[in-house]
């Protein structure tokens, strides 16, 4: 796989450990039964060790993911997928973002620790090839 990733030459390759969320992907009654994608901690570590030398490689284990993402559902409610069943906030359209965020658990420390704040403008983050549709990516357009 390393050779294929090197050939693709992405500036960032994010790999996630499979996270089981109770009431969403934990059994055959759900549309997405993720149990078949589970790996042991030893298998996950072996995979990470095998690929960590790639400069584009970024891994996220279950501990890093749980409660470190801000997810919105189709009703614009924050979803808390930490422990147990998924819980949701009131819609940000009704109560605003600050109030809705008070209704969930979001681990800002884990958010920062998983390396989400980085400089997209760095030379090694800029694409060196044209995109498949024949356009070049303008990083300034992605800034907010």
Tell me what the structure shows.
This protein is α+β, with helices and mostly antiparallel strands and 144 residues long. It folds into two domains: 1-68 and 107-135, no CATH class; 70-106, no CATH class. It is built from six helices and five strands, in the order H-E-H-E-H-E-E-E-H-H-H. It has helices at 2-8, 41-51, 62-65, 92-95, 97-102, 108-113, and strands at residues 13-16, 57-60, 71-72, 77-80, 87-91. The strands form two sheets. Strands 3-4-5 form a three-stranded antiparallel β-sheet. This is Radical s-adenosyl methionine domain-containing protein 2. GO terms for molecular function: 4 iron, 4 sulfur cluster binding. Keywords: 4Fe-4S, Iron, Iron-sulfur, Metal-binding.
Summarize the SSE layout with pairings.
Elements: H1 2-8, E1 13-16, H2 41-51, E2 57-60, H3 62-65, E3 71-72, E4 77-80, E5 87-91, H4 92-95, H5 97-102, H6 108-113
Parallel strand pairs: 1-2
Antiparallel strand pairs: 3-4, 4-5
Q: What is the structure about, briefly put?
A:
With 144 residues, the chain is α+β, with helices and mostly antiparallel strands. It has 6 helices and 5 strands. This is Radical s-adenosyl methionine domain-containing protein 2.
- End-to-end separation in angstroms reads 34 Å
Backbone structural class: alpha+beta
Spatial shape: globular
The stretches of 5 or more residues where confidence is low (pLDDT under 50) are none
State the domain count: 2
Share of residues in helices: 25-40%
Could you spell the SSE succession in H and E letters?
HEHEHEEEHHH
Question: Widest sheet: strand order?
Answer: 3-4-5
Mean pLDDT: 82
Portion in strands: 5-15%
State Rg.
18 Å
Say how many strands there are: 5
Can you count the helices?
6
Main beta sheet: strand number and arrangement?
3 strands, antiparallel
Cofactor: [4Fe-4S] cluster
Organism: Alternaria burnsii
InterPro entries: RSAD2/Viperin_antiviral
GO molecular function, one term: 4 iron, 4 sulfur cluster binding
